[in-house]
Amino acid sequence: MLRIDCPYCGIRDEVEFRYGGESHLSRPQPEVDDVQWSDYLFNRKNTKGVFFERWCHSYGCGQWFNVARNTVTHEILKTYVMGEPKPEIKQ
Amino acid sequence: MNSQQKFRQSQGGLIDRSRPLNFTFNNQSYQGYYGDTLASALLANGVRVISRSFKFHRPRGVFSSGVEEPNALLKVDFGSGTIPLASATTLPLVDNLSAQSENCFPSVNFDLGRFLDYTRPLWPAGFYNKTFKWPSWHTYEWAFRKTAGLTRLPDDQDQTQYRQMNRHCDLLIVGMGQAGLNAAIQAADQGRDVLIVEKDVLPGGSLLFDEMEIDGQASRDWITGIFQELTDRENVQLLLSSTAVGYYDHNVITVHDCSAKYRSKNALETFWKVRADQVILATGAIEQPLIFANNDLPGIMLAGAMREYHQRYAVKCGTTVVGVANNDFGWRSMFSLKEAGIKVPLIIDSRTDVDEGLSAKADEHGIEVQLGSVPLKAKGSRCVKLLEYLTSKQDKKDVKCDAIAVSGGLNPTVHLYSQAGGKLRFDNALACFVPDHCRQNVSVVGAANGEFTGLGDCNVSTRQPAPMSKNSQWVDLLHDVTVSDIELAVQENYVSVEHMKRYTTTGMAVDQGKTSNLNALSLLASSLSKSPGEVGTTTYRPNFIPVTMGAISGNRKGELYIPTRHLSAHNWHHDRGAVFDDYGGWRRPAYYGKERDSSILKEVDLVRHAVGLFDASPLGKIEVKGPDAGKFLNRIYVNNIQSLKVGAIRYGLMLNENGIVIDDGVCVRLEEDHYLLHTTSSNAERIVSWLEEWHQCEWPHLNLVICPVTTQWAVLNVAGPGSRETLQGLEGMVDLSSMNLPHMGFQSASFKSGLPYRIQRVSFTGELSYELAIPAKAATEYFSLIMDLGEPLGIGLFGIEALLNLRIEKGFFHVGVDTDGTTNPYDLGFETIVQNQQDDFIGARSLKRSADCDQDRRQFVGLKIDGNGSGVKAGAHLVTNNKNPISEGFLTSAWQSPIVGCTIGLGTINGGLQRMGEKIFIYDDKKISTATIVDRCFYDPKGGRMHE
User: Fold this and answer.
1) Contact: A34, B250; criterion CB under 8 Å
2) How far apart, in whole angstroms, are the C-alpha atoms of residue B538 and residue B524?
3) I want to staple B931 with a disulfide (CB 3.0 to 4.6 A). Which of A59, B120, B475, B865 is the partner?
4) Residue B670, SS3 per DSSP
């Protein structure tokens, strides 16, 4: 069970959170073609290594934030508020 | 001492002879002592054959003295419920315990299943992939299902209580052997918060039978002293009978605590979830067997186990025991047995060179030694009688015996380490896998780390099978896997260790290969001319040993499985005959009265012709307030929300980004920048999360707040021709005339008492209808008030079932019942609403795809069903051809409507909107009815009754 450092509440157990998949996705303009729109709807990265994802502190402050996590070791390298850009992570 | 316990020694051991315990095994009575395990008590009574093997029903006896036991799995009951496949070697004996052998018929001593053993060539590994195919697998399936498996599920009640505990600590130590206890006292001295767990009922680990001197003390005294010392320390918690079973991310370990389990009354199991800053694993090592023909006969046991039965339980495992070893640890066990008065005629060892001191000691004890010698075949029927072996000069010899002690070396217990992500490396000198490195904060000490004291030289070449009959040489005793099975796997190219495991089923049973995996992969390695290190191990997964399902679920069962929510006026409804049911996590009245169908009919009639009262409190209510609230809601809903006037209501549809309908409900504009959203009751929380996610992640610059108020307001729905008159009677109620409060209008005010209220005129039933929202605490009071006011008009209560039927008559769809994960607004007939929206909204882009606009999609329609519609159920397929049916859609709701005069339904069917008047079949598992596709609204299509 992961320990996640909520930027607002501090370190809590994984059970307090809800997972939100890949972060830093950009919602396309309505003018895009079907292929691009489909890509946004259905395609996600499946990174082996450091992955940038969203989590929501559902049973806490209710805020969404970002997490940089290594998908192989589950090490959490950084948590940062929603809206901040992708941080530089040394691999 | 009981003369029946023929193999019990009169002195010694850690058992309490002053506390005899009675038990039965296969309905025969026996006695043992407090401190025994079920296995030691059976051995003390000379019971040799205790079970039949899984596949071939071969007679088996106790093999080990610990968690690695592959044979002695028995059905046990000591008053707290039947336990199938209990490991007799770790189960403490309880008074009046009853045990039964499983997987045998009619008895363990005479089992008809043995015919499988006599026909063994027919059943190699993977036989089911190659045989029993003609005419079809199903011809034979019934026979396999009957014979397969090791046990049956118990059908009695589990009397054991279960609880769960969370624990944080600085240091978790697993194992109270010498290494673990030493680590504990060191950490305790440093003032750290220490938790130390031990799976056995006593501390000491292998010191309990492999005695030695520690700091000038006998090991027994040393254990007692250090355990007492640790018990006295405030910063140390000790748990016995507690097995660490799983190691998870970020140093979470689960511990199965059975310290209060082995009792006939008030049995309790505790499941600990421990988060430790640091973990030390002192989990010891498990002795491994050697392989030769018929090495599964009762009487053949691990040497260390025989020693433990003698030292700890004062039980002799035989009268004449032969030792088969490839290491010094095995020899020490033989010496110990000799010193106990057991005849030890011979030790055979595959090594050609052994320590001089060892040979001298064997001499002293008068034990013959054969070096460079390998075992060939054990002989006997129910019990071993003889061992054939090959001398170093290649002469075949034999020796009479009634027990064989095997010792093939030690294998560190690295399960938890591996679960933690720890990597292993093969140590050639020790011929086993040892811990190498791990990303988590865990270290391994003692035998678990390969630090074996006095093992001597034990290399892998000494672990080869005998050069003869491979299909009688057992590798995995529990799953009946032989050497020939493994060779077959290699022959058929299942050469990865993961494939070999699954093809032969080695190591896949209850014992998870604790005494078979190492031998199996060593065999695989040698047949591929590789080293075991190159072959590697299969993945270790929780749990280390079987854990009761109840321990994992704890008390989250029955009424505590899901928290149930009750209406504020629950008791009031109950007193008026409400029959409750579960609706989206709420207990709500399904109907009122004794008989279901007649009550529902009565309630429906009440609403259509008089006035009905319904508790709509769980209806989702969310307030959104701020300068950008309207802009935000325009993107959330398909409809244009910003154009709504203050005090007006609009019905809204919500989609997901894929254009699928996820919710519907009415939206009220309370003030310029203040809106009240209604959602379906079961989506109340989900939509709040939905709104928050979009606001926080996509449009954080929009200035607004979202506030769920579902449970703050109780909602009383008054519906029917008499509803206006009923409600007008409330003191302080606004003017309910159509001029002041038209259909889809809203007002808020306070009653004369000062209680604030909100009233909206919306209808789900199709009659004149009002939803009165009041603070939840006043619910009961106002339900009573309204019932009084409506009495002259014939008011009555109606429940969910009546409501759902009333709305079918109006063709109002219910999201999640009439819609599914493929329904878009076009399918529901909402083309106009979509086209009218110029701005972007969630799902808009998806609706522009050609597949979303396809006219052949399943579209929402009404159905007039022929006949009395008995047995027509929602979920039935709609088909055109009943002889060769192809599903074209589904019936989603149905009801025998008195007011319409026939059975009506709602459903979705391909291209339905173009098929009005067409006759189709309703297909429900060969029950066929006929119906006509019609407009969805069966009653008051112009809506005049709502607009009164």
Assistant:
1) no
2) 13
3) B865
4) strand
CB contact under 8 A, A41 and B846: yes
The per-residue pLDDT for range B717-769, each reduced to its tens digit, is 999 999 999 999 999 999 999 999 999 999 999 999 999 999 999 999 999 99
Nearest to B906 by CA among B822, B801, B812: B812
Q: Considering only CA atoms, which of B673, B666, B696 is closest in space to residue B624?
A: B673
pTM (predicted TM-score): 0.90
Min CA distance, B278 vs chain A (Å)?
14
Out of A20, A41, A56, closest to residue B658 by CB: A41
Q: DSSP strand E in B118-160: where?
A: none
Using CA of residue B670, residue B675, residue B679, residue B684, what is the dihedral sign? negative
Q: Do B693 and A56 touch (CB under 8 A)?
A: yes
B478 pLDDT higher than 50: yes
- Looking only at the bridges linking them, the beta strands covering B423-427 and B432-437 are antiparallel
**What HEC string does chain A produce?**
CCEEEECCCEEEEHHHCEEEEECCCCCCCCCCCHHHHHHHHHCCCCCCCEEEEEEECCCCCCCEEEEEEECCCCCEEEEEECCCCCCCCCC
For chain B, list residues whose CB is within 8 angstroms of any CB belonging to chain A. Answer: 248-250, 252, 273, 275, 421, 439, 657-658, 689, 692-693, 696-698, 700, 840, 844-846, 848-849
Whether the CB-CB separation of B543 and B245 falls below 8 Å is answered with yes
pLDDT in tens, B57-108: 999 999 999 999 999 999 999 999 999 999 999 999 999 999 999 989 889 9
The CA-atom distances, in angstroms, between B67 and each of B329, B511, B582 are: 19, 7, 44
CB-nearest partner of A30 from B697, B840, B849: B840
Indicate the burial class of B197 (C-beta count within 10 angstroms; 0-12, 13-18, 19 or more): buried
User: Could you tell me the two tokens for B255?
Assistant: 């511990």
Please write the tens of the pLDDT for every residue from B614-632.
Answer: 999 999 999 999 999 999 9
- Helix, coil or strand: residue B86: strand
